[in-house]
């Protein structure tokens, strides 16, 4: 019953534009029924990967499979089963939103008119307005509604929420969940961590055209260290040398002991035991956010001070 | 470009920054304009000087051209035509009436409305650029380019042996013409929403100027004075040399520019005077089909070129009888029109048909150029992400452009046939006029093929298609009159139609021309299937 053939699979994909190596051995597997987050900094090759997967561009080398077929040779047939929202939504300025929805729908495999009407309402789109009179967010909505209303097995969304306000962002997330519950597979490219964390079952992170890591969110988290900040009444016993603890820092200004450190997930339990013995006053355990996964790219363990400060992850990619 | 500024920098001059930006955007196209126009003028002047090398020959030419109204309507009324400069002004007249306004329009439209439409302007205005400065910078760069073009003209004329003062006046009168249209385009850029509309409205006003000037010249009334083309003509560089007339285009251009700047300083970004209201909630069935959408995309341009063609063929057809009267007993006039043998009526129709072929060719190149815009703006990517294949998409557009071409050619030939018949009072020429129009289809399709091939292979190189069109125009308009060598004439596919109906339609040559067109079209389709989308 469960189709185990990947919906999308690329192996060692490379794409060279003149002197620019946009993709450099990219691997990506999207399984049926999952929401797959596709993360990477600007210019890392997300849109290029998607264009190769859709058969819009031909890979320089490597393999790309869509529904088990070759997208470059068989695009129109394979596209029957998918809907796509491009990174830069471009529509015909002189047409109305409703007309654009119909035109986009006409080349998709099929459109569920009831769902479309429902989506128009939920996204509060006025379909009688001309595209040129729409704001950027409203133009984005037209493309999103067209894709979400399609009778597709796969949604390919390239940074779909750029320009949406938080309310609409919520509506979008809800719609994607509903589609997933209908069994639709979703490839969601983004650099909005919150969105991917909220939606994705699995995540692939790429950088400079290469896959850095991929797996379920839990999987990725379990391979990364959490940051602990504890205030205890007494000095915790042997914490600095305990298994799994690193970056240990301690000071005790007002008769309390302030400990900061990072811990790998396997040893969290025993360390909390030691803190408990020292009488916990306050305790925060920050699991690694996707943000830090993404920005630090599994580099050296995060410095607890730095991890505690919210906006301090400014490692510059070189 | 790692231009680093620290916090201590003083208020930097916004206009200076803007000039740098516009200059960079425009550098290439401005250079191409200056040199292409300069070369055209120099080529015309040199050819005229070589061909009419004695006063007697110039005199014969002048007599011929002034002996009827047909040529006056097309090339304008040249005062002092009995001189080398006069002949040049006459030969260059038709092209100048078209190219110089276009120079002003293109330079301004590209760096104002087009930039605003793309959202790039918003980026700049967020910085320290004042609202009116982009338009001002565009006008300054356009004016500088126009001035450079004028200088090239003056030098080209002087080199060919035209007196310096007269060369200067002629060059300045043409520059004034371009300047008026630059100011007009700047104003329209503030009033309309799209660069396309700036072109459309400017060209409509240009057409009106052509008609006013033509009617004014033929009827010898003050109507000429209402047309920017008339102001250039009334400078009479080779006649009375009315230097003061230069003040008219200067004043009008400055007024238009000033109005544009005032509007730019006041209105909201992205807004326009002319707004569209609400529209239908659903697309009709035909708009949903690839062909239907292609028709919708190409319709405005098709109608525009059709209107231009019908205007030209209708006006010329209506003057047929006068042209024939002028030709009676005056072979030099016929020669000036490129008619060397055969019946005068056939020769006249053939000359008009060649003009129509140039218009129709411009249409196909421009229509295929819009495919590039579909791709660069990002719509093609979305279009091809569905069940529509590349071949079907390109085929729908090609078919629609082909249909548009046939409509333009047949429609304008019909207008020409009718106008001619009414003018000479005889319907006999109707059939040959239509078939002459159709005989140019293969030639027009060669340029369509060239445009498709360039689009399929390297859309970025699309200016090659326009260069091909420029060459065809140059050869078609000036080749016969200036007696280019046969091999140069043969470079243009229009030559191979055999100049119908004066010459017999060359079916052998037409077959070869059609085969070349087909090969180019197939090449375009094959390359398009193979390349990545989008490429800009
Ligand atoms: N048609 C093209 N020609 C030349 N270079 C290109 C082309 N398309 C993409 N590139 C280059 O390939 C690289 C990857 O681009 P891509 O658009 O795939 O990045 P991205 O991950 O989608 O970035 P963003 O998050 O900004 O959308 C970039 O360096 C880009 O400049
Ligand atoms: Mg992208």
What is the CATH architecture term of the largest domain in chain A? 3-Layer(aba) Sandwich
Largest sheet of chain B, if any? none
Oligomer: heterodimer
Report the C-alpha radius of gyration of chain A, rounded: 23 Å
Average pLDDT taken over every residue of chain B: 87
Kindly name the structural category of chain B: mainly alpha
Number of domains of chain A: 2
* Total helical elements of chain A: 11
Return the string of H and E elements of chain A.
EEEHEHEHHHEHEHEEHEEEHEHH
Number of helices of chain B: 23
Fraction in beta strands of chain B: under 5%
Question: Any idea what the radius of gyration of chain B is?
Answer: 24 Å
Largest interface: A-B, 43 and 34 residues
Show the helix and strand layout.
The complex is a heterodimer of chains A (318) and B (536).
Chain A lengths: L7 E10 L2 E11 L4 E5 L6 H8 L7 E6 L4 H9 L2 E4 L11 H10 L6 H10 L13 H14 L4 E5 L7 H16 L3 E6 L2 H7 L2 E6 L2 E7 H6 L3 E7 L12 E7 L5 E7 L4 H10 L2 E7 L3 H7 L7 H5 L10
Parallel strand pairs in A: 3-7, 3-8, 5-6, 6-7
Antiparallel strand pairs in A: 1-2, 1-4, 8-9, 10-12, 10-13, 11-12
Helix pairs in contact in A: 3-5, 4-5
Chain B lengths: L13 H38 L3 H12 L3 H6 L8 H28 L1 H6 L1 H6 L7 H27 L4 H28 L3 H25 L8 H7 L12 H20 L18 H4 L1 H29 L1 H8 L3 H6 L7 H33 L2 H5 L6 H35 L5 H10 L1 H17 L5 H16 L7 H6 L15 H24 L6
Helix pairs in contact in B: 1-4, 1-7, 4-7, 4-8, 4-9, 7-8, 7-11, 8-9, 8-10, 8-11, 13-16, 13-18, 14-16, 16-18, 16-20, 16-21, 18-19, 20-21, 20-23
Walk me through what this model shows:
The complex is a heterodimer of chains A (318) and B (536). Chain A is an alpha/beta fold. Chain A has two domains: 8-220, P-loop containing nucleotide triphosphate hydrolases (Rossmann fold, 3-Layer(aba) Sandwich); 225-317, Alpha-Beta Plaits, CATH 3.30.70.120. Chain A has helices spanning 46-53, 71-79, 97-106, 113-122, 136-149, 166-181, 193-199, 217-222, 268-277, 290-296, 304-308; strands at residues 8-17, 20-30, 35-39, 61-66, 82-85, 154-158, 185-190, 202-207, 210-216, 226-232, 245-251, 257-263, 280-286. In chain A, strand 11 (245-251) and strand 12 (257-263) form a beta hairpin. In chain A, helix 3 (97-106) runs parallel beside helix 5 and helix 4 runs antiparallel to helix 5. Chain A starts with 7 loop residues before the first strand and ends in a 10-residue tail after the last helix. Residues 298-318 of chain A have low confidence and may be disordered. With 536 residues, chain B is mainly α. Chain B has two domains: 8-272, no CATH class; 298-531, no CATH class. Helices cover 74% and strands 0% of the residues of chain B. Chain B has helices spanning 14-51, 55-66, 70-75, 84-111, 113-118, 120-125, 133-159, 164-191, 195-219, 228-234, 247-266, 285-288, 290-318, 320-327, 331-336, 344-376, 379-383, 390-424, 430-439, 441-457, 463-478, 486-491, 507-530. The model of chain B is unreliable at 1-11 (pLDDT under 50). The chains are: A alpha/beta (318), B mainly alpha (536). Bound molecules: adenosine-5'-triphosphate (ATP) and magnesium ion.
